[in-house]
Amino acid sequence: MLSPITETLFYFTDDEYRAKKGVKKPILMFVRACDINAIKRFDDIYLKNGGFVDPFYAGIREKINFALMECPSKGWDTCFCASMKGNVVNDNEYIFGIQLGEEIKVDIKDPSLMEIFEGSQITYHVPIVEENLISVKIPMISNKDVQAKVKELSLWKEYDKRCIKCGSCTIACSTCTCYTSYDMLYTPDSNAGERRRINASCHIDGYTDMAGGHSFRPSAGERLRFKTMHKIHDHAKRFGGDNMCVGCGRCSDHCPAFISFSTLVNKLSVEVDKLNEEDINE
């Protein structure tokens, strides 16, 4: 809904263009706590990026309300939301919480919904996932010199062979926002068509290609490094808030090469600790 695989932005002819019609009806999304936090990261990119507001995203975002769904007590086996602070949401960020089972239990935040859930248990409160089966330590990069050395770590070369550059992790990721755009003509000899944007992935060939054949990150390890640093360092540094990754673990679930993102971050944290120590001793 908020980041479709492909999306029409506007229609055009020789003489004019027309934006697509906006969403008119309100939208209710049933989501987990990590998903609400993921959409906050979307808000950073599309609504708070140096004063720029993406009108297509904003038009949908203002129509959305959230229903918070309960998670298992420790999440799923690849979750690490507690480590990434993706496990907690404020009461004003959703209109009701819900547990679906043999009976429906509801946590009403919007009083106007009381009639809808008449007869259901409405004294329920959605519990927080306090601890996951997996714990992740976020690397604390002390300065730009250490950050530059992270780029050269041999750790990334391990993934040159393991990662197959399929992009499954970025499609599954709840915080990936990259896209490219293209014009689709209705007939080959006309100038009428529509401009679309389509999901792009830093793992896919062509993402950093330039005219003349140069590519900034041709290897799988370089691409994985770029994504990892964006998720656990760059976004927080740029926007002054939480890290981009919310610890949902879906990238690990979808990886056909069985690459665990949480394991990678913990490995990186060990290496960064060594770099920080070396920097102090220099």
Commentary on this structure:
This protein is of the alpha/beta class and 282 residues long. Helices cover 32% and strands 15% of the residues. It has nine helices and eight strands. The protein has helices spanning 33-47, 55-61, 81-84, 144-151, 158-162, 168-172, 220-239, 250-254, 261-281, and strands at 6-12, 17-19, 27-31, 64-69, 96-99, 105-108, 179-185, 193-199. A four-stranded antiparallel beta sheet has the order 2-1-8-7, with no helix packed on it. A four-stranded mixed beta sheet has the order 3-4-5-6. Strand 4 (64-69), helix 3 (81-84) and strand 5 (96-99) form a beta-alpha-beta unit. The protein is flat. The termini are far apart.
Number of strands: 8
Q: Which sequence of strands runs across the widest sheet?
A: 2-1-8-7
Helical percentage = 25-40%
Share of β-strand residues? 15-25%
Total count of helical runs of at least 4 residues = 9
Distance between the termini: 50 Å
What number of domains? 1
Radius of gyration: 22 Å
Give the biggest beta sheet. Answer: 4 strands, antiparallel
Provide the low-confidence segments as ranges: none
Shape by Cα distribution: flat
Global structural class:
alpha/beta
